[in-house]
Amino acid sequence: xxxxxxxxxxxxxxxxxxxxVSHQLMLRAGLIRRLASGLFTWxxxxxxxxxxxxxxxxEEMDRAGALELLMxxxxxxxxxxxxGRWEQYGPLLLRMIDRHQREFCFGPTHEEVITxxxxxxxxSYKQLPVNFYxxxxxxxxxxxxxxxxxxxxxxxMKDAYSFDIDxxxxxxxxxxxxxxxxxxxxRLGLKFRIVWADSxxxxxxxxxxxxxxxxxxxxxxxxxxxDDYASNxxxxxxxxxxxxxxxxxxxxxxxxxxxxxxxxSLCELLKISxxxxxxxxxxxxxxxxxALALRGDHELNAVKAQKIAGVASPLKMADADTVSKVTGxxxxxxxxxxxxxxxxxxHATATMADFxxxxxxxxxxxxGTNFGRDLDAAETVDIRNVVAGDPVPGGKxxxxxxxxxxxxxxxxxxxxxxRAMNATVQDSDGNDRALSMGCYxxxxxxxVAAAIEQNHDDxxxxxxxxxxxxxxxxxxxxxxxxxxxREAAESLYQxxxxxxxxxxxxxxxxxxxxxxxxxxxIGIPHRLVVSERNLAAxxxxxxxxxxxxxxxxxxxAILNLLQKSSINY
RNA sequence: CGGGGCGUAGCGCAGCCUGGUAGCGCACCACAAUGGGGUUGUGGGGGUCGGAGGUUCGAAUCCUCUCGCCCCGACCA
Length: 569
Known about the structure:
It is a single chain. By secondary structure, the chain is of the alpha+beta class. Helices cover 25% and strands 27% of the residues. The strands form eight sheets. Strands 3, 7, 8, 9, 10, 11, 12, 20 and 23 form a nine-stranded mixed sheet that branches. Strands 27-26-28-29-30 form a five-stranded mixed sheet, sandwiched between helices. The protein has a four-stranded mixed sheet with strand order 14-15-16-19, with no helix packed on it. Strand 21 (424-426) and strand 22 (432-434) form a beta hairpin. Helix 1 (21-28) packs across helix 11 (444-454), helix 2 crosses helix 6 and helix 2 crosses helix 11. The longest helix has 21 residues, at 167-187. It is globular. The structure holds one RNA strand.
């Protein structure tokens, strides 16, 4: 591709809308342009990268025996009503009405459609196992699209759905995808981690996420420093702490704490550590409001809390009126003593003694609170986020916390959808059995952003070889004044292409500095500089995007170096 | 949706408080010089100041409404 014919415009300045580095670089390098909130056009350069991601995903899915198909992006409401998700999915689902007043949605995922296919096509266990996949545009009307294509509303996803006769079959299909996903992210040159996860709205039991590690990641991952345990913080379990509860040493006493509505201000006022406090959160329950009590320095984990019997799911904080009604005071001073609603205590409270908590009275807290004496010592539950240093659940060592970008997710759905939609096949005994399903997603568009988060420097993007929009950038110096350079560059351009390489030939009549800067911004792995001074000795200058300095090599040596088969780094 | 902020040339911004002929840098076009790290000079094109209504002799500026976007919280590939 000749640069002069490629229509690429790069930006020197950072657009104000871009906050994280991948978004900034994607805009600056001309990969994407924004149309509206959460909607992006993939420009020619960006599309090349996208196609390369898709190619790797396709190859590995095909290798794993999955069958590609393409389902409609628009789906009829009836299908979603069968599984109850038409109501459940809420405003995330973009709904529309056709000219006949029929309701449709723009698919955010395709369990219903594929299950409909399965129920029509699959009759016998002999047709199993089967795994269908597609690479397709999805739409989720996200509450807050942000970070460019990282969390956009429209995005491209590879989604796959496996069908088996029973749980063992599902487990095998699931493991195949586990292997395929590992191969995909490895090939893409990404540093990733596989973590245990919550299956969320999609439903099902076993579920793992593939996270690209990056500080800008939206998810927190807890991992062991001693074994291979890793989990999304949403599901990482905490344990009842070892040891007995210390004996009460202080008397219960009510103290004035004017304006101390937060743990932070309370600690500042009383000159204490948050570990010595107990916070009481009033949330909606299945049968009236309930309270959740945590150590002051701990964070509530909504995913865990909403699974507790009696707590409303999804978790919702009680409004101020409800808080006033149950505590008899304004929000900010709630405490378990004298509270007339169910209270769920976090495990970590099991070893707390002589702690400070709200007194259910404005500007008042209790100090020296103790279980057994001031409060009933209750059973504890797991409702907090793990923190660095917590013991590894069921494993060795302690947990560390890292941030990750979720690029893949595999689930064992079981028969949730097949039952709801009556998708059955006959087993070898002639009995109808609900299909055992798995579903497997990869965020194609998000991978591009994640790769940049992990591979860039202050000059721009550094593409891992399999993702690069071009393999080589050819930079002639003063080509428009030197026939020698022009001829050499043109013939090199042809030869490199003949070797099967994707070459970006920077034939613009601009100063070398401009070409270098653009080449580095758009992150092409291999750079060849053609100049009069090196040509005289039949030499060229070569530099990999990751190299500190360039090397001057004989022309033949470079052509040899850039064999299609050997440039995968 | 709640809270905060911003809409002025393709991009980044100033001007608004205190109303009086719409500016700067980058990018773009032309010419010249330069010619291995975003070079320099001269000239030029490009704006219904997000939109509507109001106040005023006069509105980018003040008022009301509205639309869009960004950031902080609850969602997910």
